[in-house]
C-alpha cells in the first residue's frame, strides 16, 4: 500500500501528524512482451505480492482474475497487519512466503537496492529466480497486465484498456485518482483542518460528478468494464467500512447514494471483483495499523455487509460486463477469501 511510504521505528504512529504526500513509485521497471527493461513476460517467472487490505494492490488482484493470469503470475498475500518492517508473510506456514522463501517483502526490495530509503509498498512484482523486486509501480502494473501479457490471457478475457477509448479512460481515471483514490488519504492523513477540509470537498465533489455520469450508463467508459471501473471500485468498496469514519469522509455514506451504491454492488457481484475483497483484512489493517489516527486499535464491528449481494438492477442500463468475452472461472484453490472476510 502506498500510504506507507515512510518506514521506521514510528511509522505507524506518524499517520495524521504530518502533511500527507504520496510518493511516486521508485521501482518503475516494466514487464513487457519485448522485455525492453530486461523483464520479459514469462509464465511462472514472477510473483505478485499484495495485501487484500490495500486498494492499490486490489486493482492488480481484480485485473489478474479478470484476465485469467492466475497460473502465469503466482500470488503472495501479506498479513494485513504491518509492523515497522512493513509487509510480512505471517499468514504463511513458518512466516515465510512458500515460493520466495522470505519473511518480509522488504527482503525483495533490499535485493534490488540495498539501503533504499523509501517505503515498502504493495502491489509489488518480484522475480522468483532471484527473489528481487521488479516493480512497485501501482499505476502501471495493471495497464501492463492488460496490454503486455496478452499472450497469457485466458480465452475470453476482456479488453480492459481498449485502444479507441484510452484517452477517455485516462481522463476519467486522472480525476478519480486525484480526488477519490488519493483524496480519501489526503483527508484521512491530514494534519491540519484546512488541509482536511480541502480534501473532503474534493472527494465529494468528484463522487457527485461520477454519480451523475453513472446515472445513465452502466460503466464509466463505453459499455464494458475497463481499467477505470477497477480503479474506482477498489476505493468505493472500502468507503463505508473505513473511509467514512476512519478517514472522516463523512458527508454521506456510499449506501446513501442510490447510483453509486447500485454501481459498486453491480461490480461486486461480477466474477473477478467481489471474490477478491476481504472486508476483515480491510478493516483490521486501517484501524490497527494507523495508530496515529486510531491509537486504541479498536476495530469497528460495522457496517452491516448484508446488502452487498442485494439486487442492483444496473443491467437495465444495458452494457456487457466482458464485452465479447466471458466471465473468469472459479477462484483457484488456496486463493479464496476466508468466510470471515465475506458478506
Task: Name the features.
single chain; 343 residues; mainly alpha; four-stranded mixed sheet; 33% helix; 5% strand; disordered N terminus
Short description:
This protein has 343 residues and is mainly α. The protein has 9 helices and 4 strands, in the order E-H-E-H-E-E-H-H-H-H-H-H-H. Strand 1 (46-50), helix 1 (55-67) and strand 2 form a beta-alpha-beta unit.
Task: Walk me through the structure.
With 343 residues, the protein is mostly helical. Helix content is 33%, strand content 5%. The chain has nine helices and four strands, in the order βαβαββααααααα. It has helices at 55-67, 106-112, 138-147, 166-181, 183-188, 193-214, 227-243, 258-268, 279-289, and strands at residues 46-50, 74-77, 124-127, 132-135. A four-stranded mixed beta sheet has the order 2-1-3-4, sandwiched between helices. The two termini are 23 Å apart.
Number of helices: 9
Strand order of the largest sheet: 2-1-3-4
pLDDT average, as an integer? 94
Global Rg: 19 Å
Q: Helical percent range?
A: 25-40%
What share of residues are in beta strands? under 5%
**Spans of at least 5 consecutive residues with low confidence:** 2-10
The geometry reads as globular
How would a textbook summarize the main sheet? Answer: 4 strands, mixed
Reading the helices and strands in chain order gives: EHEHEEHHHHHHH
Q: Which structural class should the secondary elements be placed in?
A: mainly alpha
Q: What is the CA–CA distance across the termini?
A: 23 Å
**Counted beta strands:** 4
Amino acid at each position: 500500500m502506498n500510504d506507507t511510504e515512510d518506514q521506521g521505528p514510528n511509522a505507524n504512529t506518524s499517520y495524521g501528524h504530518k502533511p500527507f504526500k504520496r510518493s511516486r513509485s521508485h521501482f518503475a521497471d516494466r514487464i513487457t512482451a519485448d522485455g525492453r527493461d530486461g523483464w520479459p513476460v514469462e509464465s511462472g517467472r514472477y510473483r505478485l505480492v499484495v495485501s487484500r487490505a490495500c486498494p492499490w494492490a486490489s486493482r492488480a488482484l481484480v485485473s489478474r482474475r479478470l484476465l485469467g493470469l492466475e497460473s502465469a503470475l503466482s500470488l503472495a498475500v501479506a498479513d494485513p497487519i504491518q509492523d515497522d518492517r512493513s509487509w510480512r508473510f505471517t499468514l504463511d506456514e513458518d512466516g515465510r512466503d512458500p515460493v520466495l522463501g522470505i519473511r518480509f517483502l522488504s527482503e525483495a526490495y533490499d535485493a534490488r537496492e540495498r539501503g533504499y530509503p523509501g517505503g515498502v509498498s504493495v502491489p509489488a512484482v518480484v522475480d522468483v529466480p532471484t527473489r528481487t523486486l521488479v516493480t512497485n509501480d501501482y499505476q502501471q502494473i495493471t495497464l501492463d497486465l492488460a496490454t503486455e501479457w496478452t499472450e497469457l490471457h485466458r480465452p475470453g478475457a476482456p479488453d480492459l484498456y481498449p485502444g479507441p477509448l484510452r484517452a477517455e479512460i485516462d481522463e476519467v481515471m486522472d480525476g478519480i485518482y486525484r480526488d477519490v483514490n488519493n483524496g480519501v488519504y489526503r483527508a484521512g492523513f491530514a494534519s491540519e483542518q484546512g488541509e482536511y477540509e480541502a480534501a473532503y470537498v474534493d472527494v465529494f465533489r468528484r463522487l457527485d460528478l461520477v454519480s451523475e455520469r453513472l446515472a445513465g450508463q452502466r460503466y464509466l467508459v463505453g459499455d464494458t468494464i475497463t481499467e477505470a471501473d477497477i480503479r474506482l471500485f477498489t476505493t468505493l468498496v472500502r468507503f463505508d467500512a473505513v473511509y467514512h469514519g476512519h478517514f472522516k469522509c463523512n458527508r454521506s455514506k456510499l449506501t446513501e447514494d442510490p447510483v453509486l451504491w447500485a454501481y459498486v454492488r453491480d461490480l461486486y457481484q461480477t466474477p473477478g471483483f467481489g471474490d477478491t475483497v476481504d472486508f476483515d483484512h480491510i478493516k483490521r489493517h486501517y484501524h490497527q495499523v494507523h495508530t496515529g489516527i486510531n491509537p486504541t486499535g479498536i476495530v469497528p464491528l460495522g457496517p452491516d455487509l448484508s446488502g452487498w449481494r442485494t439486487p442492483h438492477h444496473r443491467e437495465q442500463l444495458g452494457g456487457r460486463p466482458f464485452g465479447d468475452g466471458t466471465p473468469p472461472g472459479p477462484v483457484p484453490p488456496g486463493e479464496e477469501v476466508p468466510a470471515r472476510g465475506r458478506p
